[in-house]
Amino acid sequence: MLTQIKGLHHVTSMAADAKTNNQFFTRALGLRRVKKTVNFDSPDVYHLYYGDETGTPGTVMTYFPFPDIGRGRPGTGEVGTTVFSVPQGSLGYWQDRLTQNGASGIKSEETFGEKRLNFSGPDGDGFALIEVRDDARAPWTENGVDADHAIRGFHSVAMRLRDEGATAELLKYMGYETLEKRDDVTRLIVPGGNDAKFIDLETLPNISRGLQGAGSVHHVAFAVNNRTTQLEVRKALMDTGYQVTPVIDRDYFWAIYFRTPGGVLFEVATNEPGFDRDEDTAHLGEGLMLPQQHQHLRSVLTEHLQKLED
C-alpha cells in the first residue's frame, strides 16, 4: 500500500465560456483566480485556476473553457460531484448567495451526518458545499465572501461508477481506507493527509456511461509532496499493471496520469513548485502566463483569447 498520497490536489473540468466560468468562481463562489494560463496541449484554450490565496493543494478548481463545446451527459465513469468545505452554520448564507447569482439545482440535504447544499454550475457542473467543523485552512476573503462563510477548499469528490469494486481496491492501494458505507455510497479517507481527504464512491449499476463535455470533470488530481515521492508512486502503479504517463512538467506542479478501472482519469501531482513561481503572491492570476513552449504565441493568444473581465 502507498503512503505518499496526501489527499486531493486539484480537480479539472471543462466549460463552454471562459468569462462566465471566471465570474462564477470569483464572484459567486468568492474564490481567487490564482493562475491564468493556457491548455499546454491546446494553447488557444485557457487553463484557469481558482483557489485560496496561494493555490494551496487541496483548494484548486481548474477549468479548460472550450468555446461552444457541447454540454456533457452525466453518467458513470466520472466524477459526478465536487464538494467544497465551508464553516458550520453557513449554508443559509450560501443558499441566498447562490440563488442571487443564478445557480440552479439548489437543494439541502444531510449525508454521512453532514449538512450539505447541492447546486449546479453554469454548465450543469455538479457541486456541493458541506459544513465542516474546525477546518483550519485560511479562506480567500477578497472577492466578497467573509471569513465566517468562505470556502476553505475541497472536502471531497464523488465518483459515479457502475461497480465500485476495482476503483475501491485501487484507492485502498493508494492509501485510502473505508470510513463508512450508506446505501449505495462508500466513503473513503486518506489518513494523515491534507483537509481534502475524502472520496465518495457511488454505485449506479443501471446508469449508462457519461459523455464528457461542458460541465464534466476531465480528471481528478491527488497530491504528493515532491518529485521523489511522485516517482515512487509511478513505479508502484506501473508494477501493479497500470499504464502511467511519463512525468509531465505543468510549470506549477509535475504530473502523471492514468485511467482507472471505473473510467475516471487520475492524476498524481506534486505540491511543488507552486503558483508563485512566475508571479508575486499579491498578483497571482492577473497576467497571462504562458509555458516556455508557447511564449512565441503571446501576441496571437492575447488577441485571440476571450477577455475575462468587463
**CATH T-level topology:** 2,3-Dihydroxybiphenyl 1,2-Dioxygenase, domain 1
Average pLDDT, to the nearest integer?
Answer: 97
Count of distinct strands: 16
Under the CATH scheme, which class?
Alpha Beta
Q: In terms of per-residue confidence, which ranges show pLDDT below 50 for 5 or more consecutive residues?
A: none
Structural class designation = alpha+beta
Radius of gyration from CA coordinates: 18 Å
Distance between the termini: 50 Å
The appropriate CATH architecture is: Roll
Tell me the strand order in the biggest sheet.
2-3-4-1-13-16-15-14
Largest sheet: 8 strands, mixed
Query: CATH superfamily, called what?
Result: 2,3-Dihydroxybiphenyl 1,2-Dioxygenase, domain 1
SSE pattern, N- to C-terminal: EHEEEEHEEEEHEEEEHEEEH
| Percent strand | 35-45%
Shape: globular
Count of structural domains: 1
- Approximate helicity band: 10-25%
Helix tally equals: 5
Describe this structure in words.
The structure is a single chain. By secondary structure, the chain is α+β, with helices and mostly antiparallel strands. It has a single domain (8-304), classed as 2,3-Dihydroxybiphenyl 1,2-Dioxygenase, domain 1 (Roll), CATH 3.10.180. The chain is built from five helices and 16 strands. A hairpin with a 5-residue loop joins β7 (114-120) and β8.
